[in-house]
Amino acid sequence: MVDFKPSKDCLKDKTILITGTGSGIGRAAAKTLSQFGAQLILLSKDTGRLESLYEEIVEQGFKEPLIHPMDFESAEEEEYLKVKEAIQDKFDKLDGLINNAGVLGEKKLLGQYQYSIWKKVLNVNLDSAFLLTKTLLPLLNHSKLSSVLFTSSGVGKKGRAYWGAYAISKFATEGMMEVFADELENTTKIRVNCINPGAVRTKMREEAYPAEDPETNPLPKEIMNLYVYLMCDVSEEINGQSINAQ
Ligand SMILES: NC(=O)c1ccc[n+]([C@@H]2O[C@H](COP(=O)([O-])OP(=O)(O)OC[C@H]3O[C@@H](n4cnc5c(N)ncnc54)[C@H](OP(=O)(O)O)[C@@H]3O)[C@@H](O)[C@H]2O)c1
């Protein structure tokens, strides 16, 4: 974990999009980044959870977020273009993109893995991050310094039995981060990195490890320091890295 003490308003000039903010790590990231002054755009599947997060943020007196319900399992490329247009209409630049949404899929041997679940996991965990990043590059380029994050996992670095499409989507995410980072390094001010959250007390963790005592893992809000650090300009030299939040 980085040793970083953010100032109270270190994100006050930043417009940041976060995916998968209905619950878990994405929701905690939205609450934390808004506390530090960020203008947020929140994309998630569940409209009710998005609206309740919007209310929490507004009630606390932080900047009113833009919310956009979107199902990455079925979204076509045109829907990503609409997201870009909506951001462009209001803000004309984007300073941060946190690709966080994810699903676990099924814990089965690859030989028994259902293709329908494979496609869902790849759409939500990988394709959405590719399409969103690709589509929003022009807006990220309008920022003086912008930061893109992808979300990885321990099983995206060392394959493990029964982790199926989830592990494979995370390996591909690591590779996509490296390709984007290398392509953008000398021509833009966009930096691109991966965060591996480690074991965190969320719905997904419980689904993956039903027999585990959830209390043994930190809450999402306890790993937020790295997210704030990577969204702040102090991390401008960090590019092409895969960083553990714990
Ligand atoms: N928790 C851990 O221990 C751990 C470890 C390593 C990596 N990670 C990674 O961290 C990220 C966040 O996971 P989490 O633990 O916070 O899980 P979580 O609580 O289950 O949250 C997953 C989020 O993804 C969103 N999502 C799922 N399907 C979607 C879809 N079809 N379209 C749009 N959004 C969708 C959900 O949105 P709605 O709420 O709107 O449905 C939810 O907000 C994931 O990428 C995960 O792989 C987690």
Summarize the structure in words.
There is one protein chain. The protein has one domain: Rossmann fold. The protein is globular, with a radius of gyration of 17 Å. The N and C termini lie close together (5 Å). Strands 3-2-1-4-5-6-7 form a seven-stranded parallel sheet, with helices on both faces. The relative contact order is 0.16. By secondary structure, the chain is of the alpha/beta class. The chain has helices at residues 24-35, 47-59, 77-90, 115-141, 164-184, 203-208, 224-231, and strands spanning 15-19, 39-44, 66-69, 96-99, 146-151, 190-196, 242-244. The longest helix is centred in the middle third of the chain and has 27 residues, at 115-141. It contains seven helices and seven strands. Helix 2 (47-59) links the parallel strand 2 and strand 3 (66-69). Bound molecules: NADP nicotinamide-adenine-dinucleotide phosphate. Residues 20-26, 44-46, 49, 70-73, 100-103, 124, 151, 153, 197, 199-200, 202-205 line the site of NADP nicotinamide-adenine-dinucleotide phosphate. NADP nicotinamide-adenine-dinucleotide phosphate is lined by residues 20-26, 44-46, 49, 70-73, 100-103, 124, 151, 153, 197, 199-200, 202-205.
